[in-house]
C-alpha cells in the first residue's frame, strides 16, 4: 500500500483554510495548513508534500512570489485557489509556477477532483509488474 499523500494548504482566511483542509482530509490527504507565504515556504521544504494549495492574496507576500519561491524548494504541484478570476490572473499564476488554478468560490467536488488528479496515489501494485506480464 502507498503512503498517505501530504497536502500543504497556504491560506490566510481561517474559514477557507478549514474548508480546504476538511475537503482534502476527506479525500485522503494528510493536511498541514499555514497562513503566510513565509510559513508556506518553510513547510514546503520541511514536509515534502505531494500537493500544495496556495492563495494569491497572502498577508506577507503575493501568492505568485510565494509560488516562485516554493518551486525552488519543492517539486509538488501547486494548485492556486483564489478569487482573482481574470484570464491574466490565471496566466500569471501558471507562469509563476502553479500547476492548476481554481477560482473562489469553488465547489468542494471541484477541489477534490483537482487535488486527486494533481497528486495521484501510488500503490505497491502499480510499482511492480507481475512476472507473467514482464515476458513478451
Short structural summary:
This protein has helices at residues 14-26, 37-47, 63-71, 87-95, 108-118, 124-127, 131-134, and strands at residues 5-10, 29-34, 51-54, 78-82, 100-103. By secondary structure, it is an alpha/beta fold.
Explain this structure to me?
- There is one protein chain.
- The protein has a single domain (5-134), classed as Response regulator (Rossmann fold).
- Helix 4 links the parallel strand 4 (78-82) and strand 5.
- The chain has a 5-stranded parallel β-sheet, with helices on both faces.
- It has helices at residues 14-26, 37-47, 63-71, 87-95, 108-118, 124-127, 131-134; strands spanning 5-10, 29-34, 51-54, 78-82, 100-103.
- The protein is globular and about 35 Å long.
- The protein has 136 residues and is of the alpha/beta class.
Number of strands: 5
Number of separate structural domains: 1
Could you say what the CATH topology is called?
A: Rossmann fold
The rough form would be described as globular
Q: Which spans of ≥5 residues are poorly predicted at pLDDT below 50?
A: 123-136
Question: What is the strand arrangement across the widest sheet?
Answer: 2-1-3-4-5
Residue-averaged pLDDT: 88
Largest pleated sheet: 5 strands, parallel
Q: From the 3D coordinates, which CATH architecture would you assign? A: 3-Layer(aba) Sandwich
Strand content: 15-25%
What is the CATH level 1 assignment? Alpha Beta
Report the C-alpha radius of gyration, rounded: 16 Å
End-to-end gap:
27 Å
